Amino acid sequence: MLIRTATDEDWPAIWPFLRQIVAAGETYTLPRDISEEFAREIWMLPPPNRTVVAVDPDGTVLGSAKMNRNHMGPASHVASASFMVAPGHGGRGVGRALGEYALDWARAEGYRFMQFNAVVETNTRAVALWQSLGFEIMTTLPEAFLHPTKGYVGLHIMYQRL
Amino acid sequence: MLIRTATDEDWPAIWPFLRQIVAAGETYTLPRDISEEFAREIWMLPPPNRTVVAVDPDGTVLGSAKMNRNHMGPASHVASASFMVAPGHGGRGVGRALGEYALDWARAEGYRFMQFNAVVETNTRAVALWQSLGFEIMTTLPEAFLHPTKGYVGLHIMYQRL
Description:
Two copies of one chain form a homodimer.
Chain A: E1 2-5, H1 11-24, H2 36-43, E2 50-55, E3 61-69, E4 78-85, H3 94-108, E5 113-120, H4 124-132, E6 136-147, E7 151-161
Parallel strand pairs in A: 4-5
Antiparallel strand pairs in A: 1-2, 2-3, 3-4, 5-7, 6-7
């Protein structure tokens, strides 16, 4: 698996799984009927932020991550990141590899912390993965997320020093 | 004191104190050298969000607040708000009146929670005011804010059920 900067040519491979993940409404605080235009705008970030893809040796896009500044001004030393693994390519370490890449990127860019603003508490595999990568659950905002089958569930705010 | 929706005509009264407060770098996660164009874009929110001014009987603008959706999609029942009281008009209940207005607005709009994403912990008057209005400090992100004289200080995440 290779992780490299995403280009315009990667978008047609990203959009189908991004759309599917957002439409499921279980993990992202994005409109479930997100438009391709808006999705591309929020996912394909120009420098100094970065969007990457994880690709198989045969070129198949397995997942994607975006890395960005979380706050401006006096809090601009706090980064954030978001991750999507294509359904059907889970369980192969794609999420972990993208997470490690994002942390390395943030350190190299001079960030001091990484903060995840909204990790759905029922997304237990992701929560466990981020914890294994050093993130701590700082708090859980009760009932902040309306899950399609589980009702109102909490949103974790996760944080780590880099 | 009257609180009413801000119009384009109010911007020349808001910009000087907004600029001063942001330039001080003590309370907002915004660039200290914020441009007027960017400030206006992030402060003067169109419906369904709302920006208001608090005005004296003589028409003097004492402060301003913006109220908005905090998250999208499955978390779009969480509101947020930001507040600026003009230096020289503090201690007269302007912040409290704006805070109460924002909570009433969020309830009327059908929001279920209000979340403040980044309250600087050294801004103790604001923290005490929000607590008196029902907000709880859910966590404090250590060293997330670089204060101009106090160094790295924490950012509170505050939350309340509406």
